[in-house]
Each structure stands twice: as C-alpha cells, then as structure tokens.
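Summary for the steering committee. One of the milestones for this cycle was to obtain a three-dimensional model of the protein with zinc ion bound, which we needed before selecting residues for the alanine scan. The sequence and ligand used are listed below.
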Amino acid sequence: MKIRFWGVRGSTPTPEHRNSRYGGNTPCLEVRLANGTLIVLDCGSGLRALGKSLLREFGEHPIHGYVFMTHFHWDHIQGIPFFLPFYRKGNVLLFHSVLRKGLELKGAVEGQMVNPYFPVDMTAMGAARHFFDLGEHPINLNGAIINSAPLNHPQECVAYRIEADGAVFVFATDTEPGSPFHDRSLRDLAQGADVLVYDAQYTPEQLLGDRKGWGHSSWLEGTRIAHECGVKQLVLFHHDPDNDDAFMDGLVEKARQEFPQVTGAAEGMEFVLPRGEMAQAKLATGHDRRREHRYRLELPVRVAWRGPDGRKLEAQGLTQDVSRSGIYFIVPAEVRTDLPVELDVILPDEITHRGDTALEFIAQRVRQELVNGALSNHGPSVAVAAHLMARGNESVPQEANWFSKSVN
Ligand SMILES: [Zn+2]
Ligand SMILES: [Zn+2]
C-alpha cells in the first residue's frame, strides 16, 4: 500500500512562501493498494494536483477510483470542481461516506457547484459518479478491509482504517479529544496502525484555552494515542493556517520528545507499507530521496570560479532547489563548473526567521545540462546539480530550519 499526501493544511488553503515546505493545500490523500486499487481520502484543494497526476499516469485509459469523505466542511470538498478526471467520460468515481441523519451524500458533494457558486454544475462532468453510505460496518474493497469510527467534530466526521497488503493505515482528522465515547472509538480504530495520520491543528495550550470546542486536536493527544495503541508511525496533520514552516518544525520537535516516530505531514510525502518495503523503496530510487530532502527555492546566487589564467571570475545565477548537501542552480553557460566553484547566497528573513543570512559554499558539480532562456538578460545558460560543502570556517548550518527538513 502506498500513501501520498496531496494536501495537509486545515481550514483554508495557505499559498504562502512561509508555509511552502509543509504545503498550503487542504486535505487530500491518495492510497494505492498493491493490486492497483485507487483510494482518495478527502477532496481538499490538494485534489487538483492529484487529478493532474492521475491524467498523466492513465493517459487515455479510464480512471476508476474510490473516494472516501470524512465530512463535508469546505476544506475537505473544495478540490472537487477542479479535479479534471471528473470531466472525462469513461472515468468512474465511487463516493463513500458515513452519513449523519438527514444528510444526502450526492447533495453534500455537488451542492458547492450550484448556481451562483460555480460557472458549471456537476452535469458538466462526464465521469460516472456513484454515492454510497457506508453505515457503521466494515467493507471489503478489492481485498482491503475498511472500517470507520465517529469523531468529535462540529457536524460530525469519521476516521477511516484501511487494512490491506499486510499493513494498517488510519486517517483521523478533524477531531477533538475529551469526549469519552469518541476517544474510545478512535483508539479502537487506531490499534496497531503502521501509520496514523492525526489532527494536530492546535497546540496543547490552545486546546486548553480559546480553541477548546473548535473540533480539533494537538500533537500531544496524537502522541498519547500512538503510545496507547501501539502505533508505529504518527503523522501530524491538518496544520493550522497560521502555523508557518518554522513553527511546524517546532511542533514536530516537541512531539518527538514524547513519541520518537512522529513527523509532520508535508505535500509530496509518501509512505510505502509495510515498513520493510518503505525503506527498500526509498533506497531503491534516488528520486524519492530527492523529493524528501529538497525544496524549491529561487534565490539569486553569486558564483565565482577561476578562469584559464587563474583570475577569479564571477557571475550571477539563480538557485532552483536546495537541500542540506546539494543544490540545483542555473548560471550563464560561460561559467566553468567542471572544477569546484564558490557559491554565495543570501537567505531572506522570511526563510530563516532570524534576519537575512549570508551563506558561502563550495559546489562540486555532479552533472549539468543546457537550459537556454532560463535566465533573463542572458543567452545560453546551464543548469548544474552539485554537492554543497562548507567554505572557510563556516559549517553547513544544519540547525537552520530550512535546512533541516525531514519528512520521514
Ligand atoms: Zn478540516
Ligand atoms: Zn472540519
């Protein structure tokens, strides 16, 4: 079973630079079973990018997917109008939810597109859509056993447990601790989970204060459930719109003191279960490793190198993405990168949260390719992937938040 996070933010999308490492899209997860079954958990704004990814993957072939809705608050349905596979004839999407009395699933999903809220209604969508109320009983979906449990949230919500391929995955977002009935049913559902995704929107302090009763939880409750239920990996989820990346790093760090196997959900993050396979898959592909530790960062960079006569030459380039030990940057084609070059870059305060910070590195080229037109005011340019090493007395600042991204 493979799980991919397309949206991790709670309440409202936050397309802001300071949130970009964890991500600003609202909840949407993709689960793929070993037999190819596609399961979508919630339809927040992350659903849009999932739709594009599915179209790339399936091409002209029809898409058959099972959509499970936890509840119908905006942040969990707002991606639906922008999910391109809905507009393709031949695709089949089966919606599932556990409905409270008086609510109709089709209306809850499609109502957001009625006049005057959206230019076309769902009749514009060529895909076949079917709606199922799960009730309280487990279902067998192509070999996967799916259970649900009610959560403590305004207008109700449910958590899902997917048992398949020898692993257990539990998705429990939008819930507040403190209701004995719900606390117990969630613990029953989370027993022995390989991965538990859990609502950690608020800090424990907020939850005791003015956010009490808002229907969300904290990392602290997540670590308690993880301990009590023998959870192997806890994933903090539904990040508050006001929590920037640095703040999120802090929450994850605090949670780690209580339960070591915890991480903060980030867009693009993947788990392959059972755990043995996850490690293998990660080692097997450099692609996965890259995705975990790099992030996009377009910043001016000064590059210095030695010309044929030994004279020092300089040029301006642009970083593309950066990790703790590597960098991908674009420079004018005349820059010689076959020997190590000096790189100077200034990280703005919005990334470091400690003022503009100048960093100096030596970059050792791994590969390069021509990318004409990538730099304005320049002719031919090259994109260079390089290892980063510290220069002079400075060490690579591992403690800096933006360098310490860890999503596994
Ligand atoms: Zn929500
Ligand atoms: Zn909600």
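Key point for the committee: The pocket of zinc ion (ligand 2) is lined by residues 71, 73, 153, 157, 174 (CB under 6 Å).
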